Amino acid sequence: MKDAEAGEIRLITDTAGLEEACERLSGDDFLAVDTEFHRETTYWPQVCLIQVASSDHDVLVDPLAKGIDLAPLNKLLADPSRTKVFHAARQDLEIFSRLIGHVPGPVFDTQIAAMACGLGDSISYENLVSKVVRGTVDKSSQFTDWVRRPLTEKQLTYARGDVLYLREIYKILRGKLEKQNRMEWIEDEHAALLDPEIYQFDPATAWKRLKIRKYRNDYLAVLANVAGWRERVAQETDKPRGRILKDDAIQEIAQQKPRTLEALERMRAVQQGFGKSRHGAGLLQAINQALDDPDAYAPKVDEPERSGPPPGAMVELLKVLLKQVSDDAGVATRLIANAADVESLAREKEPDIAALKGWRRELFGEKALKLKSGKLALAASPKGVKIIEL
What we know:
By secondary structure, the chain is an alpha/beta fold. It has helices at 15-25, 71-78, 90-100, 110-116, 125-133, 153-179, 187-193, 217-237, 241-244, 247-256, 261-265, 280-292, 294-297, 312-329, 333-336, 339-347, 358-373; strands at 11-12, 30-38, 46-53, 58-61, 83-86, 107-109, 376-381, 384-389. Helix 8 (217-237) runs antiparallel to helix 10, helix 14 (312-329) crosses helix 16 (339-347) and helix 14 (312-329) crosses helix 17.
């Protein structure tokens, strides 16, 4: 399959046509789904096109068409008996979570599946198409203006190709994972994508997106209240967070604690003139609210234990073991363990991490513990690193 399949492109622009298309699409146990959207200048993504394909049918849906009601499509995607297939699903799931009212599970993310198939960590869609179905993706239409109407034939062909390839990739990767008994290897990654909290954007928890640099109540109170204020303003004005106030400005404000507009204006990270803008008074109020009663505004955050750096040599040995195990199994290292897991393993006797649970423990964790206790060794060989049980 070198290029996207030929055939008539069907663009749905009315509710009746969408109802009929959804009826045809509903005959399968999966749907390949993709979207084209803009959000460079907005807080909420503006959905410009929705592409959907089953095994034998595919359509493009224009959500910007006058009078179209997406309810039939929303109902189809919300059906829990049908797997929704995406590539790098998080942004698409954010869109559908907002449209439908909840995350439309179950999902199959081909980027996650590719890790379990040994095709690399966070592989791009273009490379996945090339590796799995020997196809090519014409990226020249990727960043075109999807809001402008009418959409060109080139745009529609590009958009349709995404889901035609996607459904074939899904069948191949799923078949490979089932044959290797690896479907459970990606279950927790998919479960994490279905967590509704990551798509809710509650201003009260906006501070969690920022790095905690201090654990004093006054710092935490200002950080949390200003982050919440920014989130509310961004949502109300439909502007990106960074257009309202950048992350480094929030950090500087939390550390310097300006009480007046004059003090705010003297800060390096705050845009010049911001204090006198329409949002200046609101920002200053959020700062002073937090400083007047830090205990009421500071989130409860446990300061991490200062256990010192992990043993450097052991970290490096564990990394070598992880790389060799992942190469032997044909799976991306990040799916087994991340850098924090490796450091925890080096520092603690048996930390509570994913790498020491389930299939990960069987594949890597047990070997890591044996390496630490001297019951396993690594040796160089002409074919790479050899793992030796002692």
